[in-house]
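Thread title: Can someone regenerate the structure for this chain?

I was given the following input by a collaborator and told the matching structure tokens would be attached. They weren't. Posting the sequence so someone can regenerate them.
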Amino acid sequence: MSTKLNVKILVLGPKNVGKTNISNLIAGTIEKPSERYEPTVGLRILEVFTTPATKIKNVGDKLLVELWDVSGDRRYEETWPAIWKDADGILFVFDADDKSQPKEMEIWYRSFAMPAELSAKHCRVFAHHKQPHVASSNPIKLGSAFQGINVVHTSLDNEVDLIRGEFDSLAQAAIEHASIRLEKSKSKK
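Best answer:
Regenerated them for you:
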């Protein structure tokens, strides 16, 4: 008998940084990013099928990962506890060309990764460039909360494979986290 393993990855960050385009790319709902900005209202949930890297007892070969594309508008802050509950991974996204964003990213980290008790292994950061980028001699640095979390510079114009690869790596860590969470809940019964 196969057990239902729910895997939940949040996509978080400030407004208008590209979270929805990245989420759509990962979920395979678009081939090319939208140029027009349409803010996410609350959140959107997309489904991504993935294959676990290792066999998980009583779980099938394909797993459904829920990708929660969360609005960057802080007016939805009162809903955040319901969103981070049972999260297995977080993909943080910020505008790598906006020097004001590291301070705001600290708020996202404290509001989601800390209460969800997710370690660096279960998080990724996309320092996203809306235009193709060249390496900067003075890249934006995130605060100490992000120490140990893999930070990857992304652009939808030329790093699609990198984005998908980093997501797959995060998904494997999230699957492991969800599996442990499921085993703990079974042992409490």
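DSSP finds four helices and six strands in the chain.
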